[in-house]
Amino acid sequence: MSYAVPPTRTAAVVRQLRNEIVTGELPPGTLIKDAELAARLGVSITPVREAIAQLSVEGLIDIAPNRTRHVTRVTQKNALELIDVMSVLACAGFEWGVDNLTANQVELMRQRQREFVEALRAGNTLAAGAAGADFSTIVILASGNRELQSMVDLVVARTMRILAMTAESDLWSTWIDGHEAILKLLDLGDTRGALARYRQTYVEFRARVERELLDDQ
């Protein structure tokens, strides 16, 4: 997979901190200090503060009334709410786009699925998450609704935040199995079946998170 180079220092800091939060390198509750971050990343205070403000909007960093900043703590309730919102948005995009998919786009989905599985085998959960998200993005973009994709993008980072887990986590298997089933249905030309299976994947994922994610995380 290819990644665009951030156009500004602020964008670069946003990407770096977002990745560290999503992967769990910066655990929930971690105190965020401007000067320490600036020194570690080799930038000035300004892009660090701008990045923190952006990540606060995304829900990844909490800013207290006294202006201290911490990596957002994730509770089971918060995780389930994020999954519910993501499900509504992503399933709408899938429904609107699935009938517009071309053979090339389905093949691209298959490629993203391979990258997803290979990244997990390599222990790279960040790359796995990106490839898994791209699997859905291909269908959502086929709907032609760019505003919907923009809304999905806003939720993706926060949803991935609850997946700050090892490559061995059983939660990933929900998406591996779901994607494989969807591809088989698309190969058969059964777009309605593919949509139903996509929705079912979210139902199964939510149920597993509800069972496995504890409030003391």
The SS-based structural class is mainly alpha
Give the termini distance in whole angstroms.
31 Å
| Rg, Å, rounded | 18 Å
What percentage of amino acids are in beta strands? under 5%
Q: Give the overall form.
A: elongated
Order of helices and strands: HEHHEEHHHHHH
The helix fraction, in percent, is 55-70%
Average pLDDT for all residues = 87
Could you name the ranges where pLDDT drops below 50 across 5 or more consecutive residues? none
Strand order of the largest sheet: 1-3-2
| Secondary structure tally: strands | 3
Instruction: Tell me the name of the CATH homologous superfamily of the largest domain.
Output: GntR ligand-binding domain-like
Number of domains: 2
Per DSSP, the total helix count is 9
Can you tell me the CATH topology of the largest domain?
Four Helix Bundle (Hemerythrin (Met), subunit A)
CATH architecture of the largest domain: Up-down Bundle
CATH class of the largest domain: Mainly Alpha
Major sheet details: 3 strands, antiparallel
Q: Which quaternary structure do these chains form?
A: single chain
InterPro entries: GntR_C, TF_FadR/GntR_C, Tscrpt_reg_HTH_GntR, WH-like_DNA-bd_sf, WH_DNA-bd_sf
GO molecular function: DNA binding; DNA-binding transcription factor activity
Protein name: GntR family transcriptional regulator
Pfam families: FCD, GntR
